[in-house]
Write a structure and sequence with these properties.
Elements: E1 11-19, H1 24-32, E2 43-50, E3 56-63, H2 66-75, H3 77-87, E4 90-99
Antiparallel strand pairs: 1-3, 1-4, 2-3
Length: 102
Amino acid sequence: MNLIPTENPGLFVLIVLTVRPENQQTLIDTIRSAGDQATVPGLRSINLLRSLDGTQVINHMHWAGKEEFEQARAHLPLIENTRAAVQQLVEHATTNIYEVAG
């Protein structure tokens, strides 16, 4: 079952965060406490995945489009403040941007 709309499927951003196991839950709590995702223009959803070994968290975000993602990343204090807090907890981060393959 495909839950992605066929019209205007948007953009998907996956941020893979490598963390020490003792910081995994703190990292998740930090991202969750950043604010109400409904107030971020163009952000359709966010899901957090944690690795069973405690060393990674994946922040899976669905955006309306690339422009909305780039605008939020460049101009929203909520995003900037969250990114700064996350950087204090992670060992490494990789951001990957995807579109739906038609």
